[in-house]
Each structure stands twice: as C-alpha cells, then as structure tokens.
UniProtKB/TrEMBL annotation:
CDD domains: SIRT1 (cd01408). This is protein acetyllysine N-acetyltransferase. It is an enzyme of class 2 (transferase). PANTHER family: NAD-DEPENDENT PROTEIN DEACETYLASE SIRTUIN-2, NAD-DEPENDENT PROTEIN DEACYLASE SIRTUIN-5, MITOCHONDRIAL-RELATED. InterPro entries: DHS-like_NAD/FAD-binding_dom, NAD-dep_sirtuin_deacylases, Sirtuin, Sirtuin_cat_small_dom_sf, Sirtuin_class_I, Ssirtuin_cat_dom. One of its GO terms (molecular function) is histone deacetylase activity, NAD-dependent. The lineage of its organism: Eukaryota, Fungi, Dikarya, Ascomycota, Pezizomycotina.
Length: 297
C-alpha cells in the first residue's frame, strides 16, 4: 500500500448515460432498473458522524492529532517497520478505534438498504471499523481492502491470536506477543499497514468495478493506492457518484460523474428522498442504532 495524490481536472460536460448530472437523475436511473450491479467504495468520511475521526481532515483528522504519541511522522503508527520497533503507539490508537464502541451512520445503512434490495454487487471499504457489517451489509459482498479489527495474528509466524485475549490486551493498551512456543513475535490486528500487501480478496475482486452499472464513492480522499485506482476502473458511460466534503481523484471529469459535495449522510438522505426510500432508510437505520444514537448523530 502506498500514498498518492491525484490531480483534479475541471470539465463541465453534458451527460451521456444519465438525463442530468444530478442526484435526481441518478435516482431515476436506479428506479428505471438500470442499476442492478452497484459497486460502492468507502473511506473514513462515512464513519466520522459515528464519532470516528478520519485520517486527513485538517484539524480533526487522526494524522493531525498524534503529537501525544511522539511519532517520527503521523503515518508511522500504521507502518509495519515502525510497529516492529515500537508497537505501543498503535495500541494506544487501537483502544480508541476498537469496534464495538461505535454505531453505523445512515450512510452505512443506505449501503445496507441497497444490499437488501439486491442492487449492491460489492462494497469495497478502506475502513477497519466493521460498521458496514454492523449495518447489515452481507459479509460475502464486502471487500475490506485494508483489513479489519475482526481478527489478528502474529506478524512473524502468522499464528492467529484469540479474540477474547486480544480484546483484553487492547483495553489495557498492552501489545500482545504470540502464544506459540518458541515464537515471541508481536500480535497485530489484520489491518493492512503501509509496507504490507492488501488481502487477496481485494485482488480477486478487482475486476468487479468494471462490471458495475453504477459506482458510488463515499467519504474518501482517494489518496492511498491501490484502492484509489478503483473508481477509474468503472467503464466509460457508467455513472459515478461522489459523496464527499470535497472533490477527490478524477471524480467529476467524466460526463456521467455526479458530485454531491456535502456530508455522506446528507447526500444519501437526498438520494433516498429522490428514490422514495427515505422512510425505509430512516426506519432501517433507527432499528440498527436505536433512537438515542440516531438523535445523537
Ligand atoms: P481520509 O481521511 O484520507 O479521507 C476522508 C475523506 O472524507 C476526506 O476527503 C474528507 O473531507 C471526507 N469526509 C470527512 N468527513 C466526511 C463526512 N461526514 N461526509 C463526507 N465526507 C467526509 O480517509 P481515507 O480516504 O479513508 O489506512 O484514507 C485512506 C487510508 O489512509 C485509510 O484506510 C488509512 C489511511 O492511512 C490505514 O490505516 C490502513
């Protein structure tokens, strides 16, 4: 996994597939039955409303707020070579980010609703918070491109480490060591660090974006490769919708790109309204997170 900064090109060109470059036109395209194989691609921005910071937002992003960990540079907390030398900073963060402490956003619920209506072909996520599963997206159509906290193993002999013991170590901020006799390797959640290969499920499914009839990109700066390449794999003429606070990657440069530059939650609510699904969506979300959490978010 490596860093990348794609440039933005500004082209205001008329659409070829959609009737208009608007969410209303995207909703019509879906309602006309033209989107049966939707591929969604998500990043940390879809979870910020749940209370999990993203990485790169100025001021609030995780990488801006790691001074307390005394790192040589912020990304070091997710670098495998640094982890080998000093796993403690990662375990400070792990305690804060560990799944179970957060609830899905309505944007997660929208993706689950697409799955429920058999319209979601696949979800590619960079997130390690497991909130897509918590919202009800079936695990077999989720590609966790940067891994997740759902399992863990020794970084040397690769022996899996038990979940319950891991939870205890994370709660104490205490990096566990491998339990295999003769191996004293460090244990790390199966999160992809800089310097590590992405999971095989990512490469096994890299052909899927080219088979999509609609691509939704939500809450990502598209600044980390190879994930950042995925939206570009959509065929020409396939509508791509960006739900993000600002433009990223080359989204907006194709004739059927639609930009919704707002919070993911506001954007999916607007699309759901155009689809006539808003009541279903709100009900489904409240059923997942409860009324108190829904009111808090
Ligand atoms: P970033 O922090 O790089 O980007 C998050 C994007 O979401 C930014 O463009 C924000 O403006 C936007 N955003 C934030 N809150 C939003 C909201 N409520 N609604 C809409 N947009 C919002 O996060 P990622 O792109 O996910 O890797 O970062 C990619 C990878 O870099 C991560 O998976 C992580 C990191 O290094 C690992 O840790 C393994």
């Amino acid at each position: 996994m490596g860093q990348d900064n794609s440039s933005l090109v500004d082209d205001d060109i008329p659409p070829e597939t959609l009737s208009d470059r608007t969410l209303a036109a995207v909703a019509k395209y879906i309602k006309d039955g033209k989107a049966q194989n939707i591929v969604a691609m998500t990043g940390a921005g879809i979870s910020t409303a749940a209370g999990i910071p993203d990485f790169r937002s100025p001021g609030t992003g995780l990488y801006n707020n790691l001074a307390r960990l005394n790192l040589p540079h912020p990304e070091a907390v997710f670098e495998i070579d640094f982890f080998r030398e000093n796993p403690a900073p990662f375990y400070v963060l792990a305690r804060e980010l560990y799944p179970g402490n957060f609830s899905p956003t309505i944007a997660h619920a929208f993706i689950a609703l697409l799955a429920k209506r058999n319209l979601l072909r696949m979800l590619f996520t960079q997130n390690i918070d497991c909130l897509e599963r918590a919202a009800g997206v079936p695990g077999d159509i989720i590609v966790e491109a940067h891994g997740s906290f759902a399992s863990q193993r020794c970084i040397d002999c690769k022996t899996p480490f038990p979940d319950r013991e891991m939870r205890e170590h994370v709660e104490l901020g205490d990096p566990p060591s491998c339990a295999q006799p003769g191996c004293e390797g460090l244990v790390k959640p199966d999160i992809v660090f800089f310097g590590e290969q992405l999971p095989s499920t990512f490469f096994d499914n890299r052909h899927v974006p080219a088979e999509a009839d609609l691509v939704l990109v939500l809450g990502t700066s598209l600044s980390v490769q190879p994930f950042a390449l995925l939206p570009g794999l959509a065929r020409e003429g396939v509508p791509r919708v960006l739900f993000n606070l600002q433009r990223v990657g080359d989204l907006g440069t194709r004739p059927d790109d639609v930009l919704c530059l707002d919070s993911c939650d506001a954007g999916v609510r607007r699309l759901a309204e155009h689809l006539g699904w808003i009541d279903d969506l709100e009900d489904m979300w409240v059923a997942i997170v409860g009324e108190e959490e829904a009111a808090r978010q």
